[in-house]
Amino acid sequence: MKRCLFLLAALFFGAPPAAAQCLLCAQDAAAGQGRKAETPLRIDVETRLDMGRIAVGAMGGEVEIDPASGARRLRGDLVDLGGFALSGTVTVRGEPGAEVRVILPASVDLTSGHGRTARVTGLVTDLSAAPRLGADGRLQFRFGGRLQVAALDDGDYRGRIPVTVEYQ
Q1: Which domain holds residue 52?
Q2: Which segment of the chain is annotated as a signal peptide (predicted)?
């Protein structure tokens, strides 16, 4: 199975988008069912996951970003301070028509400059059950998740969300 791994930064206060080529992909690695892939996988981050700005009260809470709509939902003792909440957007390029598998972790811990932590869970994409690269060798998808923040833990939380893409 051909595998490509890219670490996606989850920056929560508007850093510019990043783009990177997968350097772990080997052109001659086997791709599902004995077929050799002609084109290595390439991953470009178009938009980083951004939860916007919130204030956290004594009970803590959770911010959820829907991958399809980008809508932000607040639960618990949180106050919306505005800012743009964005679902992450990733473009995968490779062998036209090839089936791929996208893997996101179950959770990711983020840290603030003051050493506090917050956890992103429930990472999901807007992909179908069996995603394929288009006839142009391209597939774009969005992802979102839930940021869990403990009581009174303010800060600018940052971290990396590993996104793994494999040929099937």
Answers
A1: 18-154
A2: 1-20
